[in-house]
Structures are given as structure tokens and as C-alpha cells.
Amino acid sequence: MQKQNAGIHHITAIVGNPQENVDFYAGVLGMRMVKKTVNFDDPGTYHLYFGDESGSPGTIITFFPWPEAYRGTIGSGQVGITTYAVPEGSMAFWEKRLGKFNIDFEKVSRFGEEYLEFQDPHGLQLELVERKEGRNSEWSFGGVPAEKAIKGFGGAVLLTSKPIKTMELLEEVMGLQKIGEEGDFIRFRSTSDIGNLIDVKKTVLPNGKIGVGTVHHIAWRASDNEEHKEWREHIGNHGYGVTPITDRQYFDAIYFREDGGILFEVATDPPGFAHDETKETMGSKLMLPPWLEEKREAMEKTLLPAVPRVLEEDK
Q1: How many domains does the chain have?
Q2: Which DSSP category does 292 fall into?
Q3: What's the CATH number where 279 sits?
Q4: How confident is the model over 67-101, as pLDDT tens digits?
Q5: Does the residue 3 lie in any domain?
Q6: Taken in order 187, 269, 274, 54, is the CA torsion positive or negative?
Q7: I need a labelling partner for 298 at 20 to 30 A (CA). Which of 31, 154, 220, 289 fits?
Q8: Count of alpha carbons within 13 Å of 176, Cβ hemisphere only?
Q9: What residue numbers bound the domain in which 72 lies?
Q10: Which residues form the VOC domain (predicted)?
């Protein structure tokens, strides 16, 4: 039986000033900052996580804020657009909310759905779409009530230098199902009800350049550690160079680069974000892995502010 991936676990992107990042994703979009830690590979910088009330797989967007970094270029070898699902009947609320914060948006149609496309402050391409499927978030913050809140990922648009090879990977290795073709896009579906629709752009764009305003990688789900090991063997058996399993504290991870240039990760659903904080206090303080705890004082002095706050427009 062919292995089938459930869908997106998380998406990780590079942004600029950390407080601007928090103000947008928590303050404007109303998401919960579920974890404030550091980039384990570059501990002088944050790693910030946003999602639903629990940081459920399929809702988590994570950021490396590099305030002094150069601006990247979105292009082939990247996630081009990150799609968020919102409850049915909430699009008028989101149009009004984006307008309230003077965020330009454009309405577009794709596969019979209406999208609001816009950018975050650092240039990441985002879109909102109404979806019936997927559990509603229980989180409310600022001017975003739970009944209008972002559910999690609707999916993503992939930009690839080798569309045929990328689509072969999605179908034959990751087990997604091709469900449609419209204009420049081919759509694939995974088995979950969130983070489940992937659109591949057929036109090859110039190669993207990593930097502020670009997605670093997209991560797919493994239900537990045993399935994670199976995915590593399965992907390797298809000729992809897969990294050893890495402990990321909140999930285990493996990485490989697909033929079209996009960095893929497979991450475990457990243990999640509440194992070193309570669910009630997640995201309220800087959390460090044991091997960095002795450097806490120095880090807290040098890291810039990154605090969720209700913005003036919602007071």
C-alpha cells in the first residue's frame, strides 16, 4: 500500500524585526504565539512559533527573525504563497480587518474558491480562503474572535524549477492525490482536513533567493516516531538524500531537498509545545533547550523584544 502523508505540519520563513513579526501574526491575524525560543543552529536569533490555541500540527507557522538580513527574492525552489483557512462566512470580516490596518489585498479565484491575497510586513506572500473542513480555532486575541479566527493552513503554492519532478514526488513518494488542473496550477490533496491542498505552479520562475520575506522550508507530518522512521526510509528508498533524525524539542525532524529546489522536512506530531510549558502559559517566556540554558542571561540581554500585544487599532 502506498504511503500517504497527512499534510503540512508547519512552514518556516525568514522575516525581519521580531516585534513587527509578532505584531502582525498575533496582533493583526490573531494567532497565538505558542513558543518563543531560539534558532538551535543560530542561537543568537529567535525561533518564533504561531498557531491555534494548542499549536496543533497543520496550524504552525514559524519564523527566524533576522533584523539586519538582506531581503530575499521569491521564486523557484520555494513555497510561493502560504494559504490560511478561515471559517465559512468570515471573509467579509477579514476584508474589513485588513482594511483597518491599511493592508493592501487583492481578490483572486482558483479552483472555484475566492482568496484574499496580501503580504506580511516583510514581504511574505499570504492568502486567506474560506473552508468548511477543519476544526475551528478556540483562540481569540485583540480584535479577532474565535469564531472568525484562522483555523490553520489551507495549503500552499509551490514554485519549482522542475514542476514534473516535484509533482511526481508529491504523488509517488508523499502519496498526495492529484485532484485538479486549472490554468497555471495543478492541485494535490493530502489526507488531513487542514493543511491539505497543495497547488504547484507549472510556469518555471527565476530561482528564488533566500532572505527576509521568503519561506525557508515546508514540513510534512508524521503521526509518531515510528512513522517518522518509516518516512525516512521510504524517502531514501526513492533516491533522495535524507538527513539523520534531529531532535527539535517540540518534534523530531528530517530534511531533504526535492528536485525542484524546495527544502522539505518531515516532522513528528508529538511531543508538541506544552511539554515544557503548560498549555495556558505557552509562548509567555523564552524557552531554551537544556544545552543553552547556561546562556540565558546573555541571550535575554541581546535579543530584541518579541511580545504579543493588542494593537492600538483594537483598543
Answers
A1: 1
A2: G
A3: 3.10.180.10
A4: 989 999 999 999 999 999 999 999 999 999 999 99
A5: no
A6: positive
A7: 31
A8: 28
A9: 8-314
A10: 7-131, 152-269
